[in-house]
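Hi V.,

Quick status before I head out on leave. The structure for the redesign project is tokenized and pasted below; the design run finished overnight.
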């Protein structure tokens, strides 16, 4: 266990490059199971989730090398239907193995994935999509997901626009010889990136970026070299860090149009920044005004994963801001920590909250409840007076590569302490 110690109040200054997307890496790495040929993935984030997914793939028979943000991987044969139980217990994204295991092997077993504190997050959408493709549920499915059968082409309507269920459906359809139509598909940037990778493997996919995907699967797929997209969530977090500290920061490699709603809200609040191609420069903003409605939604709506860090900015804005968290009923857990630091936030119900600002924040020991809540705690520490200690940073390490070092390069006083 480690923790971060932050001494707040330092305006960030300098230039940073946005790293690669965790949520694109996970399904793409899982999808390398679809072929027995070599895949080379560039721009891979060196984060805990990458190593967890690689641990699963190793058990299944994949051979790989991971260095300098490049993974060279080949799975000549899948050795077992059983997905590593220990990793599944702490990484919810293990569910992404269902699609590729069924497509290549025709069977898979894994316990129900753990690791989530955000809400109920049923996996019904995943299981129903696969059943629609002819996959059989085996046994009582009480403790373990046991599925049999190679997915067949189908016309599918998702129960909701679930990101990872869409990814499982597209991957499952990739080796189904024929046309699969997936309606109510999620269109988050990472779903689109997965589709572009699958095209490189030889799959034909129409409708990328729309809610209807038409996947023409192939009997056999080949290897490919692919560069993983950069992380719009990390980009947004860095922009917020710069604004909060009234810094002058240039952020390069930003997927600008993945964040259209985010820029609109910042403009509404009076934030000072410029965008040129994929470069965003944040300037010190004297006064931020409250945000009338921060409404999270599926893409291209405001990403739920940026809601906690954005709320920290709302604590520094003049007036009453309203937040409607439409997706996760457990996403406001971090609010108690912010309130302890001095924020004035009223939670109406699990989906709605009001923030009164501006309120000065004071440093203290706060917990990181999940990955994005952890990022919010770091941002709060950067703007707070005095010393903030952020514990349970293993969540942050799951998704942000060397976040402390990135912030240090901008002048932040943040240090990792190993307990
Ligand atoms: N939901 C709706 N309406 C919808 C779609 C989803 O209310 O139309 C609700 C679901 O009921 C659920 C929640 O939203 O409670 C999330 O659903 P989804 O199935 O889309 O989530 P996921 O696929 O399990 C991925 C990301 C999450 C991210 C969500 C939402 C990966 C590996 N995980 O999860 O990422 O929060 O989509 O965008 O891609 C993170 O990176 O910190 C993270 C938690």
């Amino acid at each position: 266990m480690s923790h971060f110690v932050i001494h707040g109040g330092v305006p960030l200054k300098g230039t940073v490059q946005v790293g690669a997307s965790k949520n694109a890496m996970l399904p793409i790495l899982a999808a390398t199971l679809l072929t027995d040929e070599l895949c080379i993935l560039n721009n891979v984030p060196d984060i805990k989730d990458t190593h967890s997914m690689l641990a699963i793939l190793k058990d299944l028979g994949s051979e790989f090398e991971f260095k300098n943000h490049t993974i060279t991987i080949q799975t000549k044969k899948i050795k077992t239907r059983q997905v590593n139980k220990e990793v599944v217990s702490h990484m919810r994204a293990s569910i992404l193995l269902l699609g590729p295991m069924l497509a290549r092997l025709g069977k898979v077993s894994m316990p129900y994935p753990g690791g989530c504190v955000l809400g109920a997050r049923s996996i019904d959408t995943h299981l129903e999509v696969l059943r629609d493709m002819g996959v059989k549920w085996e046994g009582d499915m009480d403790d373990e997901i046991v599925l049999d059968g190679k997915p067949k082409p189908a016309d599918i309507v998702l129960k909701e626009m679930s990101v990872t269920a869409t990814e499982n459906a597209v991957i499952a359809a990739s080796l189904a010889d024929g046309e699969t139509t997936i309606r109510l598909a999620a269109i988050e940037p990472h779903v689109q990136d997965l589709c572009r990778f699958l095209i490189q493997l030889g799959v034909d996919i129409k409708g990328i970026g729309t809610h209807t995907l038409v996947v023409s699967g192939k009997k056999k797929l080949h290897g490919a070299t692919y560069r993983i997209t950069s992380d719009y969530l990390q980009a947004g977090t860095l922009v917020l860090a710069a604004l909060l500290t009234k810094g002058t920061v240039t952020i390069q490699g930003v997927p600008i149009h993945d964040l259209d709603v985010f820029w609109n809200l910042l403009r509404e609040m009076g934030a000072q920044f410029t965008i040129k191609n994929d470069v965003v420069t944040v300037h010190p903003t004297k006064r931020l005004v409250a945000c009338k409605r921060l409404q999270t939604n599926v893409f291209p709506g405001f990403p739920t994963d940026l809601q906690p860090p954005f709320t920290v900015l709302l604590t520094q804005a003049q007036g009453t801001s309203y937040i409607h968290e439409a997706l996760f009923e457990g996403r406001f857990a971090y609010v108690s920590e912010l309130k302890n630091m001095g924020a004035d936030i009223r939670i109406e119900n699990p989906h709605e909250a009001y923030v009164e600002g501006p309120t000065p924040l004071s440093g203290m020991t706060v917990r990181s409840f999940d990955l994005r809540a952890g990022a919010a705690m770091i941002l709060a520490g950067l703007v707070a007076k005095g010393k903030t200690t952020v514990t349970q940073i293993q969540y942050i390490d799951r998704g942000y590569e060397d976040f402390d070092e990135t912030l240090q390069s901008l002048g932040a006083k943040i240090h990792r302490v190993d307990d």
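Above is the designed sequence. DSSP finds 14 helices and 23 strands in the chain.

G. will cover questions while I'm gone.

Best,
W.
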